[in-house]
Design brief:
It comes from Malus baccata (Siberian crab apple). The chain is built from 2 helices and 13 strands. By secondary structure, the protein is of the alpha+beta class. Strands 8, 9, 10, 11, 12 and 13 form a 6-stranded antiparallel beta sheet that branches.
C-alpha cells in the first residue's frame, strides 16, 4: 500500500520540477531579451574556494573560505606569525601555510592573498557606508568574533599632498545581503554625469542620471559614492524605485 502511494508522489514531484524549470527558462528569456550572455574563463584558479564572495567599491572581489579545512591551493612563504613555511611534512600539512582568502582585481585580472586570523565558517557580513567589509561569527576560533576589511587599490601610490582632480565619477553600489555563499544582488553601477558645476567654498554641484531600467538596477537601496581622482568619498544611501 505504501508503495502505491509513493509512486504518484514521485510523478507529482517530477511535474512540479519540470514546471519550475520551464518557468525559470521563460523568466530568464524575458529578462535577457534577444541578447545572449556567455561565460568567459579569466583565471584557471585563485587557489581559494569562494565560500564567501563580495564585490567592493574598488571593483575588486573578495573571496574567502574557512581556515580549518586543511590546505588550500595557494601556498604561502610565511605563516601569520612570520615563521617560514618549509617543505617538510608538517609544514605541507599545516593550514596556516596556505592562504584562505584572496582579493581579485577585475581590471588587471590579478589577485593577491589576504590573511584570515579566525575561522569564518559559518559567518555573515555586510558593507558599511565607508566601504569597509564587516564580518561576524564563525566556527571554533571564529565564534563571537568581529572582523573588518578596508579595500584599497592594487597599485597604491601614497602622496603627502594632492590637489583635487578634475576626473570625477559617480557610482551606485548594491551591497550584498547576508549569505553563506555568492550574493546575486551585489552590483556596481557607474552613473552618467550630465553636469558638473564648481560653486563657492569648494563645493561642487552635480546632476547625475539614474539607471535606465530595473534590469540595470533593480529596485532597492544603493550606496552612492563620489570618486574623485580614484579616491572614493563617504557613501550615502539612496533608493531606486521603478514604477
Amino acid at each position: 500500500m505504501a508503495h502505491h502511494n509513493h509512486f504518484p508522489f514521485v510523478i507529482k514531484s517530477m511535474i512540479t520540477a519540470l514546471f519550475f524549470i520551464l518557468h525559470c527558462i521563460g523568466f530568464s528569456g524575458t529578462v535577457a531579451g534577444s541578447q545572449k550572455g556567455q561565460w568567459q574563463l579569466l583565471l584557471n584558479s585563485t587557489g581559494v574556494v569562494a565560500m564567501h564572495m563580495a564585490l567592493t567599491h574598488h571593483n575588486t572581489v573578495i573571496m574567502f573560505d574557512q581556515t580549518e579545512a586543511g590546505p588550500s591551493g595557494y601556498r604561502l612563504r610565511r605563516r601569520q606569525n612570520g615563521n617560514r613555511c618549509t617543505d617538510n611534512r608538517d609544514d605541507v600539512a599545516d593550514s596556516s601555510c596556505y592562504a584562505h582568502s584572496v582579493e581579485y582585481d577585475i581590471s588587471s585580472n590579478r589577485f593577491r592573498p589576504l590573511r584570515l586570523y579566525t575561522d569564518t565558517w559559518c559567518s555573515s557580513g555586510s558593507f558599511l557606508s565607508n566601504g569597509t567589509l564587516l564580518q561576524t561569527g564563525g566556527y571554533g576560533s571564529g565564534t563571537r568574533r568581529i572582523r573588518y576589511y578596508r579595500p584599497c587599490d592594487f597599485n597604491v601610490t601614497f602622496l603627502l599632498e594632492r590637489k583635487p582632480s578634475d576626473v570625477v565619477e559617480f557610482t551606485a553600489y548594491a551591497p550584498p545581503f547576508t549569505t553563506h555563499s555568492i550574493s546575486m544582488n551585489q552590483r556596481l553601477l557607474k552613473l552618467r554625469c550630465k553636469s558638473l558645476v564648481k560653486a563657492q567654498g569648494g563645493l561642487v554641484h552635480a546632476v547625475v542620471e539614474a539607471p535606465p531600467s530595473a534590469n540595470v538596477a533593480p529596485s532597492g537601496y544603493y550606496m552612492l559614492t563620489v570618486v574623485n581622482g580614484g579616491t572614493p568619498s563617504m557613501s550615502e544611501w539612496v533608493r531606486f524605485m521603478h514604477h
